[in-house]
Amino acid sequence: MTLLINYFSLCLISLLLIEFVDGSIVRSVGTKRSGPPEVFDFSGKLSMMDNILNALGQSSPMLVFRINNATVVSYAKEKELLTISYGAEPLNTLATPWQKLLCTGIAGDCRNTIRYAQTISVNHTFEYDIPPPSKYIAIKLSDYFQEATLQGGRRCLCCNCFILDASEGSIHKISANGDLLKVFGGCIGRKASIGETALIEKLQNNEEILSSPEKAKEIANEVMKLMIGNNNNDIFTKDITTIVIPDMKF
Q1: Residue 167 included in any domain
Q2: Is 206 part of any domain?
Q3: What is the domain count for the chain?
Q4: What's the Rg (C-alpha) of the chain?
Q5: Cα separation of 141 and 117, whole Å?
Q6: Which one of 82, 92, 104, 199 is most buried, by most CB atoms within 10 A?
Q7: Domain of 185: which CATH number?
Q8: CA–CA separation, 111 and 54 (whole Å)
Q9: Chain segment 2-53, per-residue pLDDT in tens
Q10: How does pLDDT run across 168-183, given as a tens digit for each residue?
């Protein structure tokens, strides 16, 4: 009788232990959990970054690309087209006339980015009596964006930008998360991925466009039309600025 009681007591304890470890022994041995691991966003940074990327997807569309001895720049200039305005002149000069900063995103973040880049450029020129190279400014902006993305208690910056340098014919692209790339061309803002795909298709193995500023401006307008998503040609012509910045050789 005692052995029987001990047997049932042992069975009861075993069942309780199995329930506490969330599932039966058979199920835990014979099956595996499927699906991606659950990520806990304690600081809210992941949700914030997701919102920032969605906002950037509605900001002013802009594109740049290189042709022979020049850079083509195209951007929207009418705020009625934009869910989020750039909040300042889209094409900004730094300490030298051959360095330009092109920004899109939330107005306040773009203004802060422009001021920060201009401060870096002016301070370097004052301290060393020579303007900083574009790569130096691009790295500083990249660090600035990345710090805002990673630092706890600080909001990510909603801004993408290009740094154009007519003295060396270069384009640096800085993303909101701090990614830095030296590119031949690219798009930022609304429908940027669609614009870049169309730009690659039109420029690939096409020497005629690369050697003709007028044809390059036509291609830029066509790609911008795709990015804006506006089929009204009259509105499109009025609301887009496309310019060619020639290289400056010293």
Answers
A1: yes
A2: yes
A3: 1
A4: 27
A5: 7
A6: 104
A7: 3.60.20.10
A8: 20
A9: 655 666 666 666 665 555 554 444 444 444 455 555 655 556 667 777 888 8
A10: 999 999 999 899 999 9
